[in-house]
């Protein structure tokens, strides 16, 4: 997988758009939907996966249906921003299942995390194990979602 953009043609774009809406369909169904033969579709999807355009295929779970009712957006500022200390913090939070996303950002805080938890006691436990116990964390500012008006995973291609 590389960070450089892959050239996509119209068939690739149709496949990607269809898979972003429903990745559970069979290859035959996908091929029919995007108007190509099943072998062509299979070859294209394989190439899109091997080139890193398709990172992975997952099921999106409704958090509230599995007891994860609290969404927190957390800003983190570190004391020391050297590259190795930034990478250390990323490794530190990456291992926690409640942390769904971690972004290095600029300007402002060093990181923004998206966290999904059951409740406030679960947030307090997470804050202690990830932030309070980490010597390089200088500041933590947390926003709690009161309503999610949009959630989308599709990227325009």
Structure description:
This protein is an alpha+beta fold and 157 residues long. The chain folds into 2 domains: 1-59, Winged helix-like DNA-binding domain superfamily/Winged helix DNA-binding domain (Arc Repressor Mutant, subunit A); 63-144, 2-Layer Sandwich (Alpha-Beta Plaits), CATH 3.30.70.920. Helix content is 37%, strand content 19%. The chain has 5 helices and 4 strands. The chain has helices spanning 10-21, 27-34, 38-50, 83-94, 120-132; strands spanning 70-78, 99-104, 111-117, 137-144. A 4-stranded antiparallel sheet has the order 2-3-1-4, with helices on one face. α1 (10-21) crosses α2, α1 crosses α3 (38-50) and α2 packs across α3 (38-50). The chain is elongated and about 55 Å long. The two termini are 18 Å apart. The mean pLDDT is 96. Keywords: DNA-binding, Transcription, Transcription regulation. Residues 8-69 form the HTH asnC-type domain. This is Lrp/AsnC family transcriptional regulator.
Would you summarize the structure shown here?
With 157 residues, the protein is α+β, with helices and mostly antiparallel strands. The chain has helices spanning 10-21, 27-34, 38-50, 83-94, 120-132; strands at residues 70-78, 99-104, 111-117, 137-144.
């Amino acid at each position: 997988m590389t960070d450089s953009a892959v050239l996509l043609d119209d068939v690739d774009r149709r496949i990607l758009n269809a898979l972003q809406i429903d990745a559970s369909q069979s290859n035959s169904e996908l091929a029919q939907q995007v108007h190509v033969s099943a072998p062509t579709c299979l070859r294209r999807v394989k190439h899109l996966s091997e080139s890193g355009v398709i990172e992975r295929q997952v099921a999106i779970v409704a958090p509230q249906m599995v007891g994860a009712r609290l969404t927190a957006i957390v800003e983190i500022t570190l004391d020391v921003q050297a590259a190795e200390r930034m990478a250390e913090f990323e490794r530190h939070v990456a291992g926690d299942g409640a942390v769904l996303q971690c972004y290095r950002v600029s300007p402002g805080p060093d990181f923004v995390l998206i966290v999904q938890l059951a409740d406030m006691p679960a947030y307090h436990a997470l804050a202690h194990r990830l932030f309070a116990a980490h010597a390089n964390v200088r500041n933590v500012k947390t926003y709690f979602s009161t309503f999610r008006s949009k959630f989308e995973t599709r990227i325009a291609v």
